[in-house]
Amino acid sequence: MLEENKKKSLGRGLEALLGEDVLGDEKTAPKNTDKIKITDIIIGNWQPRKDFNAESIKSLAVSIKEKGVLQPLIVRVKDDKYELVAGERRLRASKEAGLTEVPVIIKEMSDNEVLEIALIENLLRENLSAIEEANAYQSLMTNFSHTQEKVAELVGRSRSYIANTVRLLSLPQDVQTLISEGKLSAGHARCLVGLENARDLADKIIKEDMNVRQVEDFVAKQKEKKAPETNKKTSKTKNDDILDIERNLNRNLGLRIKISPNRQGGGKVVLQYASVAELDMIINILEQKKQTHIISQNTVFKEPETTNEKFSIKFVD
Fold first, then answer.
1. For the chain, first and last CA: distance in Å?
2. Which residue did the predictor score with more confidence, 180 or 269?
C-alpha cells in the first residue's frame, strides 16, 4: 500500500510537469497518444539510472504481451528521430516482448524540463537504492533550485524524509557503496551520519548483523563515552590556564566565580550566589566597579540576566 501511494504521489508530480491527462492509469491509456516504431526512438543522456533489473524487465515484458503497453512513453522530436523522455523501462520491456511499435505522447520540452521529468520518473523505479534516491532529490534541488518542501510536494514525501535521505550523501563514499549494494540499509546508515568512524561502524553492523535499534544504542553509548573525554580536556585546559585567575577573583572580590572557556578563545564568567542577600551584594560590588569605569557604563543590573554588545552577565543559584 505504501509503494502504491508513493507511485500515485509521484504520478501527480509528473502530471504537474507534463500536464493533465498524460499518465493515464493502470487500466486505461491516456488520450492523444501516437504509435511510432521502436527503431525511431533514441535514448538520450538524461536517464539518471543506468542499471535495470533484468528479471523485472522480463516480468514487465510478459505483462505487455498479455495487455499491451498501457502507459505510453513520453518523447520529444530530436532531428529526424524521437528522443525518449520518460519510459525507458517500458521501452526495454517492449523490445523484450517483441513489439515493433509503442504508444507515445509527443511533447515539446526544453533540456531542463527533460532532465527534471527524468529525475522524477526515476523515483518511480522499483528497488531504487537510498543513494540513488538521495542523488535524485539532490539533483532536483541543485539543478532546478527546488526547496526541500517543493521536492517533497513533487514526490509525495514529507520534507523530513527528503532531508534525512539527502543527508546520506554526506557519508564517506565507501559507506554509500555499501548502501547501494544493499549491504547496509538506509535506517542503519542514518545512524552513521556525522560520525568520524562511520566506515568502521558500518563494517561492525554488517559483521554482527546488528538491527537499527542496536546501532542507535551503540552510537548513543559511543557519544556518552566521548563526552567525558571532551569535558576532561576542557577541564585540564582550565586548570592550567584559568584556575589561578578564578582564585584571585574569588579572593579579591569576595565572590564565587566560575570561568568557562571555549575553543574560540572566548567563554563565560559566571557569578554564583546562594541567597537574595548575596545577589544584592554582587550587584553592589558591580555597581561600584561600574562607577570606577572598570565595567562598561552601558551595563545594567536590573534583571537576573542582562546583555549588551560586550557583556553577558548571568546569575546562577
1. 56
2. 180
**Continuous segment of H or E residues that includes residue 82:** strand 81-86
The pTM assigned to this predicted structure is: 0.53
- Give the pLDDT confidence score for residue 56 in this predicted structure: 84
**Spatial separation of the C-alpha atoms in residues 230 and 14, rounded to whole Å:** 50
| pLDDT tens per residue across span 261-288 | 776 667 788 877 666 666 767 777 666 6
Tell which of 82, 97, 128 closes a domain.
128
Q: Among residues 88, 121, 132, 133, which one is catalytic?
A: 88
Q: Is residue 228 part of a domain?
A: no
Strands 81-86 and 41-43, bridge-based pairing: parallel
- Sole residue written with cell 502507459: 71
* Torsional sign, CA 60, 137, 11, 130: positive
Q: What one-character-per-residue DSSP string does 12-23 give? A: HHHHHHH-TTSS
Grid coordinates representing 132 are 540513488
* Residue-range definition of the domain harbouring residue 306: 242-316
Residues 148 and 162: beta-carbon distance below 8 Å: yes
Boundary residue ending a domain (107, 128, 149): 128
13 domain-assigned: yes
- Digit-coded pLDDT (tens) for 31-79: 578 899 999 998 876 665 656 778 888 999 999 999 998 889 888 898 8
Do the domain assignments include residue 118?
A: yes
Q: Is the separation of the CB atoms in 11 and 23 below 8 Å?
A: yes
Active-site residue, 88 included: yes
Q: Domain count for the chain, please give it.
A: 2
CATH of the domain at 106: 3.90.1530.30
- Is 139:48 a contact under the CB 8 Å cutoff? yes
